UniProtKB/TrEMBL annotation:
One of its GO terms (molecular function) is acyltransferase activity, transferring groups other than amino-acyl groups. Pfam families: Acetyltransf_7. Residues 5-144 form the N-acetyltransferase domain. This is GNAT family N-acetyltransferase. The keyword Transferase applies. InterPro entries: Acetyltransferase_Butenolide, Acyl_CoA_acyltransferase, GNAT_dom. Keywords: Transferase. The keyword Transferase applies. It comes from Agrilutibacter terrestris. It comes from the Bacteria. PROSITE patterns: GNAT.
Amino acid sequence: MAEANNIQLVERFPDAGDYCRLRSEAGMSPKTLQAARKGLPNTLYGVSLQVDGEVIGMGRIIGDGGCFYTVVDIAVAPAYQGRGLGKRIMTALDTWLRQNAEPSAYVTLVADGEARHLYAKYGFVETAPASVNMEYIVAPHAPE
Ligand SMILES: CC(C)(COP(=O)(O)OP(=O)(O)OC[C@H]1O[C@@H](n2cnc3c(N)ncnc32)[C@H](O)[C@@H]1OP(=O)(O)O)[C@@H](O)C(=O)NCCC(=O)NCCS
């Protein structure tokens, strides 16, 4: 297991292969390689955590660059969780937002389970019941 000081934060989002692998390792819903190849180049700002070149963490911001921003794909590989790395990722994204987003920008995310405690540290507040997240997957059972 790498020490925390051997874990490097790189201001670049993982490539599509590492992205799909890390989502799966972290227990997140799968994305096809094709979806990742289409979507990742539209990232406004993203970071990776690397150990000896291996990607073990990630997070990114998408949006219109003016009015609306969404924080997505926050993940740390299970073997490295609980050591402050989620905070390292969120600190980088929060710093970028505070430096680059307009004062009126609306920043949102969907917090899964206990991850809401992480986001609360960066000023995110729950919107329910006034507003609730609504969603659908385009074709959940389609072949990849
Ligand atoms: C969520 C995730 C990114 C957090 O990364 P991490 O490196 O484990 O988080 P950290 O060690 O930096 O902890 C950050 C804070 O989050 C909170 N937190 C994280 N997991 C928590 C849990 N299971 N229960 C309660 N609080 C939790 C704590 O408040 C913690 O701060 P503290 O140690 O100062 O109290 C990581 O657990 C993960 O990848 N999970 C699977 C994928 C996922 O659910 N991603 C989020 C999608 S919304």
